[in-house]
Amino acid sequence: MSPPLNIVVLAAGKGTRMRSELPKVLHRLAGRPLVEHGLDAAAALAPAATCIVYGHGGDAVPRVLAGRGLAFALQAPQLGTGHAVMQALPHLDGRAVVLVLYGDVPLVRPQTLNPLVEAAHGGALAVLTATLDDPHGYGRIVREDGALRRIVEQKDASAAEAAIREINTGIMAIPAGRLPGWLGRLRSDNAQQEYYLTDIVALAVADGVPVKGLDLAEPWEIAGVNSPRQLAELERVWQRREADRLMDAGVRLADPARIDIRGHLHAGSDVSIDVNCVFEGEVTLGDGVSVGPNCVIRDSRIGAGTRVEAMSWMEGTMVGEAAVIGPYARLRPGTELAAGAHVGNFVELKNSQVGAGSKINHLSYVGDATVGARVNIGAGTITCNYDGANKYRTVIGDDAFIGSDTQLVAPVKVGAGATIGAGSTITRDAPERVLTLSRNKQFTLAGWKRPQKNKD
Ligand code: UD1
Ligand code: CA
């Protein structure tokens, strides 16, 4: 039987270069805090326990990560990565393999971590390394006759050591039983006056414990976020991976460099997406859906064959098949469009169901409404759903025709097949199949003259 896995995520550092009040690991990548990305990779390894070491920024980190069965260890003050792991010791199982991850390294993949953990199963210390063209800033892997002997930090390195291109990613798998002893022997007599976790490598060598260096990671995978620039760079790496995944599944992207997915986008076959679209939360696009440029779609399901035209914004919506939305439509939470519905420019919908084949094509607000099938809602129609205190519903029957510039003062019902004359303010229910209108009588003043400008 393999030993249990315990994961320690180091997230106490200050992140000075972010120049932000927010703890670094809570800055967002693809819409989620950095630390959550690492936790996703960790969760894929099914650990018996996961402990987050936090410090800078008070309890902001445990608050964001509450309710997930994680353990938290406070590190205050922050005296280095070795000192950080020391704080997690009470939460660790002495029989476990301890995998150390960094909260500011978001792109690491489970398939890279797995062999590292396995390498430590027999009691060895396993260090994930990478070989970089520019190793500056990283701890260097010092080998003798191929065997990993120690790690030297950039600030402590001799010129010869600084020339080494194999670096410490910071990710290690450590036999838990050895940790208290090794951590207890760390010293801070180094350039940064910190307790370096990396010094356990030399201690393991001294104790005759095998040390394995696995050069497995892709450079982007172990890249940490230290500055807004690096955060933005990793965001593009992430988004490019998402774009590639979509294209590999057959989605046609006008430009893979101009799409942002902050959550999960599920797409059927023959889906096409134009430039500058943002997808947030859980979004599902059915077969043949096309999305025009500059759309924002959040937590929505869109049925097969529907066209979303340019500049449309949708949140919490369910759309049937072959609907047409936009350009410039705004669909707010609770909007449900049945098959073949059309919603046009400068139309706002909220908490409303629109039946099959109905059209709301121009400049309207429809909120808290139930609209039947084949209804035509003319330009400039407003549901007056709010009296300043409460919201009320508007119900419009099948085949109704609402003339332009109508106000429907809710609660109100328009019967099936009813016609409402343009410019009406409807305050009482309108019966089915007949014309209802409220409108001042038009009159003409014969012989009326326009006023003239006064002389001098
Ligand atoms: C560390 C490694 C270095 C490696 C590099 C990879 C050490 C001594 N050095 O250097 O070999 O190449 O990462 O990116 O381990 N942290 C705490 N408490 C602390 C200090 C740090 O929780 O007291 C956390 C930080 O929040 C961060 C991680 O540990 O998530 C790494 O800290 P950082 O200061 O960035 O380490 P580096 O100097 O980059
Ligand atoms: Ca770092």
Question: Short description, anyone?
Answer:
With 456 residues, the chain is an alpha/beta fold. Strands 13, 15, 17, 19, 20, 22, 23, 25, 26, 28, 29, 32 and 35 form a 13-stranded parallel β-sheet that branches. The protein has an 11-stranded parallel β-sheet with strand order 12-14-16-18-21-24-27-30-33-36-38, covered by helices on one side.
CATH topology (fold) name of the largest domain: Spore Coat Polysaccharide Biosynthesis Protein SpsA, Chain A
Largest sheet: 13 strands, parallel
List the total number of helices. 8
Bound molecules: uridine-diphosphate-N-acetylglucosamine, calcium ion
Report the CATH superfamily of the largest domain: Spore Coat Polysaccharide Biosynthesis Protein SpsA, Chain A
Average pLDDT metric: 96
What's the CATH architecture name of the largest domain? Alpha-Beta Complex
Polypeptide structure, described:
The protein is α/β, with parallel strands linked by helices and 456 residues long. It has two domains: 5-222, Alpha-Beta Complex (Spore Coat Polysaccharide Biosynthesis Protein SpsA, Chain A); 228-436, UDP N-Acetylglucosamine Acyltransferase, domain 1 (3 Solenoid). The protein has eight helices and 38 strands. The strands form six sheets. Strands 13, 15, 17, 19, 20, 22, 23, 25, 26, 28, 29, 32 and 35 form a 13-stranded parallel sheet that branches. An eleven-stranded parallel sheet has the order 12-14-16-18-21-24-27-30-33-36-38, with helices on one face. The longest helix has 21 residues, at 228-248. Bound molecules: uridine-diphosphate-N-acetylglucosamine and calcium ion. Residues 10-13, 53, 75, 78-81, 83-84, 102-104, 138-139, 151, 153, 167-170, 196-198, 224 line the site of uridine-diphosphate-N-acetylglucosamine.
